[in-house]
Amino acid sequence: MTKAIRIHEYGDADNMKWENVNVGAPGEGEVRVKHTAIGLNFIDIYQRTGLYDIGALPATLGMEGAGIIEEVGASVDGFDAGDRVAYAMGLGAYSEARLMTTDRLVKIPAGIDDHTAAAMMLQGMTAQYLLKSSYPVQAGDTILIMAAAGGVGQILSQWAKYLGAKVIGCVGSEAKAELAKDAGCDHTILYNTEDVAQRVRDITGGAGVPVSYDSIGQATVQASLDSLMPAGFFISFGNASGPITDFNPGMLAMNGSLYMQRPTLATFTRNRELLNAVAGDLFDAVVSGAVSININQTYPLAETVQAHKDMENRSTTGSTILIP
Ligand code: NDP
């Protein structure tokens, strides 16, 4: 018997239960992964509350993990028992061990430890596609990043800086502003109290920014649109404050013929070739030291309820892992 964090109905953090589950042997095309660390992500909250539907309940939450392949089922190519592996976007990670198909798995390079791998796959591959595909950042760009002291935010900020951008990071507190600066932000804005668009115009000499990477959703739509230069990119990649429900495309016209994208990591890693390219670029960025993965919170997996409460009330910074 192994243990897992499951929900039987959508709701608040206390709905998650630490339960016995029977994992069993891997079937055709599957492997059994024994987790050594699990990543905590904001998407876990959307899935726990039901904002994102995860299908039949009860279900084991969690989208990201690292560990060792314990057993390999029939018809598995390219992976063997004993391999050190990690993955993102594979529901069921909040578990001591699990079965999964190999399509989301990558082997962890020697220079990266399991805790770092578990912390970086989902947030780091997200930063990769945002900076290289959604809006390819150019050296000399001045860009806007929301929640710059968070998990995705700190990776985005460091990587954008490494690519030669000037980074403006929005954060919820003075303490987070210091963390965002450490992660490469040239300027920080306290978006709960300051006029974001006005500050952006001041910093950019009135020009605005070519891109706003906005993970906040409802609360920051207008601030993002008002901060962009003509034909700029509003990349709305999350809903930490709640989903955008009343968006009129005319707002893109009024703010300067803007582009909008609502991306998901699933699209940018939708086949083996793309997954290997995105994960490989991330591994290179971390192994070379261009990007550091800052694990600022570690909880026992059994205490995931507390981890969710802390993330939801904005008291986590950087990346967070759960240890089985
Ligand atoms: P974070 O560590 O960034 O945590 C979320 C942060 O959002 C908080 O720390 C807080 O920072 C800020 N925030 C603003 N308003 C609220 C609010 N009302 N409630 C809670 N937090 C708020 O999480 P992640 O790094 O895991 O994810 C960041 C965002 O990126 C999420 O929105 C997530 O959904 C999105 N995402 C999207 C992906 C995609 O492919 N589309 C993939 C991965 C993540 P502060 O106090 O500074 O405001």
Helix and strand arrangement:
Blueprint: E1 2-7, E2 17-21, E3 30-40, H1 42-49, E4 59-60, E5 64-72, E6 84-88, E7 97-101, E8 106-107, H2 114-134, E9 142-145, H3 151-162, E10 166-171, H4 174-182, E11 187-190, H5 196-203, E12 209-214, H6 221-227, E13 228-236, H7 250-254, E14 259-261, H8 265-268, H9 272-287, E15 295-300, H10 304-312, E16 319-323
Parallel strand pairs: 9-10, 9-12, 10-11, 12-13, 13-14, 15-16
Antiparallel strand pairs: 1-2, 1-4, 3-5, 3-7, 3-16, 5-6, 6-8
Helix pairs in contact: 2-3, 2-9, 5-6
The protein binds NADPH dihydro-nicotinamide-adenine-dinucleotide phosphate.
Question: How would you describe what is shown here?
Answer:
It is a single chain. The chain is α/β, with parallel strands linked by helices and 324 residues long. It has 2 domains: 2-121 and 267-323, Quinone Oxidoreductase, Chain A, domain 1; 139-262, Rossmann fold (3-Layer(aba) Sandwich), CATH 3.40.50.720. The protein is built from 10 helices and 16 strands. Strand 13 (228-236), helix 7 and strand 14 form a beta-alpha-beta unit. Helix 2 packs across helix 3, helix 2 (114-134) packs across helix 9 (272-287) and helix 5 runs parallel beside helix 6 (221-227). The chain is globular and about 60 Å long. The protein starts with a strand and ends with a strand.
Identify the CATH homologous superfamily of the largest domain: Medium-chain alcohol dehydrogenases, catalytic domain
What is the top-level CATH class of the largest domain? Answer: Alpha Beta
Helix-strand string: EEEHEEEEEHEHEHEHEHEHEHHEHE
**How many helices does DSSP assign?**
10
**Rg (C-alpha, Å):** 20 Å
Strand runs, count: 16
